[in-house]
């Protein structure tokens, strides 16, 4: 029987070589430690931690996650243990997992908050990259979301880039009309890579009680419902910049990854799918390898930007 050639699954994002383009998305994979017994870490490209803030945060009141027709709405409120506890309690365990590739997700309500988080992480070994979440409100500017205002975004990225001792990937908000413009702003401010999309602002109402189904009233929509919009945004952004784009939004199977890569993504993240199946990231990564083998694709990176018009 003729053996098919091994597929080269490696991709490089901002100088960091990943053994697979399939990563676990922030907020859907805990701090990574929780998934060690569930997933073979060496079968996935890596994972992005839950968002880390300067101080611990309790998050929003329940209900804060609901299912929708093709995805879910969440308003977790960025609950996390705080960056110092993460560095002291979780990172030593993660460093013992030889195959874990850790990307730390950072957020803050002021630029200074983000810088403080980066300082703590700079002194923490075992992290390959930072993902800066630009989708949270800047409290010093009346709550205007960093990622929806070009000036705030440029300021955030340039000031974080100066202090970051690791590559800085900027996660863009999709709640804008001109995503390519925001991608250019982040690149010009020094981003080493972009990731998109975060969740779409949304609202669901219980028609019997006439109340919002999420206690916070609005929340972020994720899952298959957002995939075609996310693919379009990855397409537009990747054509607007030279830095790599990491795509996400509704990926549930290998073919979805191929679609994002054809649109211009160098790598992808899988979020909501892990709620339905905690092994989803590994299954999708393995499925991608098989898909490439079946389509005689020797290097997965050859898919990036290869959409035909
Ligand atoms: C429950 C939940 C929590 C999330 N928390 C974060 C977070 O802390 N930081 C962040 O940048 N994105 C967060 N996200 C957004 C995801 O990382 C991802 O961008 C989004 O869900 C779209 O991908 P998906 O459709 O595969 O879930 C969260 C998403 C969900 C569903």
TrEMBL record:
Pathway named in the protein's UniProt entry: Pyrimidine metabolism; UMP biosynthesis via de novo pathway
Gene3D superfamilies: Aldolase class I
Cofactor note: Binds 1 FMN per subunit.
GO process terms (BP): 'de novo' pyrimidine nucleobase biosynthetic process; 'de novo' UMP biosynthetic process
Main location (coarse class): cytoplasm
Residue stretches making up the Dihydroorotate dehydrogenase catalytic domain: 10-289
EC code(s) of this entry: 1.3.-.-
Entry keyword annotation includes Flavoprotein: yes
One of the record's GO molecular function terms: dihydroorotate dehydrogenase activity
Binding site for substrate: 50, 74-78, 133, 198-199
Keyword Ligase: no
Compartment(s) where it occurs, according to its Swiss-Prot or TrEMBL record: Cytoplasm
GO cellular component: cytoplasm
Membrane-spanning residues: none
Catalytic activity, reaction form: (S)-dihydroorotate + A = orotate + AH2
Active site residues per record: 136
UniProt KW keywords: Cytoplasm, Flavoprotein, FMN, Oxidoreductase, Pyrimidine biosynthesis
Family classification: Belongs to the dihydroorotate dehydrogenase family. Type 1 subfamily.
UniProt-recorded name of the protein: Dihydroorotate dehydrogenase
